C-alpha cells in the first residue's frame, strides 16, 4: 500500500539527498527523516564507528531494520543512504510504500562534493574515484529499478532541484 505523501530519496553519496530532502520536506510541509542520522541516534555512535566495529555488513543489517520502520511511516521525506538499495527488501519497501526519487549525479560531482568529508567510510581508500565508479556501476540500475522519477542534480542549486521535484509531484500543469 502506498502512503500518500511519502517521498523517498535514493542515490549515491554526494547527490544531495539530505540537503535536498530537508528543503523538499519544508516545501511540502512534511517531516524530514535521514536514515543514516536515525541509525546514529539509535546506536549512539556515528556511522564510521559502526563500519569500524561491525563492518559494512553490520551497518547494512542496522540500515535494513531502520528502513523497514521508516518506510512504513506516512507523510515523510526520507533521505536514504547510498547503499540502501543493495538489499532487496529495502528496494521492495521503498517502491511499495511511497514515491521514490532518484537524485542522480556524476562521479565527478560526487568527488567534488565529498572531497573533504571524512564521514564516508567507503571513500577512505587510496582511489576514491575508482570506488565511486564501481559503486555507481553496481547501484545505478538498482536506483533506476525503483525510481518513480530521476532528477539530475549536477550543476543545480538545491532550490532548483526541489522545484523540479515539486513539479513532478504536482504532475502536468
- Straight-line N-to-C gap: 27 Å
Unreliable segments of 5+ consecutive residues: none
Q: What is the CATH topology classification name?
A: Rossmann fold
Give the structural class. alpha/beta
Percentage beta strand? 5-15%
- The beta-strand count equals 5
Q: How would the global form be characterised?
A: globular
So what's the CATH class? Answer: Alpha Beta
Largest sheet: 5 strands, parallel
Helix content: 40-55%
Write out the CATH superfamily name: P-loop containing nucleotide triphosphate hydrolases
Radius of gyration over alpha carbons?
A: 15 Å
Overall mean pLDDT: 92
Secondary-structure element pattern, one letter each: EHEHHEHEHHEH
Count of individual domains: 1
Q: Strand order within the widest sheet?
A: 2-3-1-4-5
**Number of alpha- plus pi-helical segments:** 7
The CATH architecture can be given as 3-Layer(aba) Sandwich
Explained architecture:
By secondary structure, this protein is an alpha/beta fold. The protein has one domain (7-163): P-loop containing nucleotide triphosphate hydrolases (Rossmann fold, 3-Layer(aba) Sandwich), CATH 3.40.50.300. It is 55% helix and 13% strand. The protein has 7 helices and 5 strands, in the order E-H-E-H-H-E-H-E-H-H-E-H. Strands 2-3-1-4-5 form a 5-stranded parallel sheet, sandwiched between helices. Helix 1 (17-28) packs across helix 7. The chain is globular and about 45 Å long. The two termini are 27 Å apart.
